[in-house]
Automatic annotation (TrEMBL):
Keywords: Membrane, Transmembrane, Transmembrane helix. InterPro entries: DUF3566_TM. The chain crosses the membrane at residues 94-117, 155-181. The keyword Transmembrane helix applies. This is DUF3566 domain-containing protein. It comes from Nonomuraea roseola.
Length: 199
């Protein structure tokens, strides 16, 4: 009985030689505690290894004056280019639009100017002066009627005719000038242009 009692107090083992579950759980708990301690130590080491803020690079605001000084000392860049060809179709479209705008400006300017001069009575005084010079004594009318030349329909009609002729001529001459420039550029080279960077 005493032998059996002594054997009962000894640590129980399983038949296949494995340790009981309580000892296995204690060992797992010890391993997890040691792993946690190692992780804390690694974190502490990483905190110690990290450089301080004073050793880091200075903020970019300190470097800005140097960059501004370097940009101010740098001269503007220049580009030497040669105009080799002018497309006649684009020159014709551009010149047509510009001449059309000039035609509208001319027509409006003449209409406004005619209205101002007519309100001031300039045309009436011109007609009276011409009639006095051309009329003989005792005649009520002169040899020709000057007042018909100052009618608004005639003046604005001539203005529209001149403007239309200008549109056609400017467009044609610009297109012809582009063709002539292309021929001359093929023979002797184009116009050299130097572009400079804005400060």
């Amino acid at each position: 009985m005493s032998a059996q009692g002594g054997s009962a107090k000894a640590t129980p083992t399983r038949e296949n030689g494995q340790k009981p579950e309580t000892e296995v759980l204690d060992m797992i708990g010890d391993e997890t505690e040691t792993e946690q301690e190692q992780q804390v130590e690694e974190q502490n080491e990483t905190v110690r290894i990290r450089p301080s803020l004073t050793s880091e690079a200075p903020p970019p605001a300190v470097e800005l004056p140097k960059k501004k000084a370097a940009a101010a000392s740098r001269l503007p860049r220049k580009a030497h280019l040669v105009l080799r060809r002018v497309e006649p179709w684009s020159a014709m479209k551009f010149s047509f639009v510009v001449s059309l705008v000039c035609f509208v400006v001319l027509f409006v300017a003449v209409a406004v100017l005619y209205g101002v001069l007519s309100a001031l009575g300039v045309f009436e005084s011109i007609v009276q002066t011409v009639n006095q010079l051309t009329q003989a004594d005792g005649q009520t009318t002169g040899s020709f009627d000057v007042s018909s030349w100052f009618e608004p329909v005639r003046i604005l009609g001539y203005t529209a005719l001149i403007g239309a002729v200008n549109v056609v001529l400017i467009t044609a001459l610009s297109t012809l000038g582009a063709v002539i420039y292309n021929i001359a550029a093929d023979l002797v080279g184009g116009v050299e242009v130097t572009f400079s960077e804005a400060e």
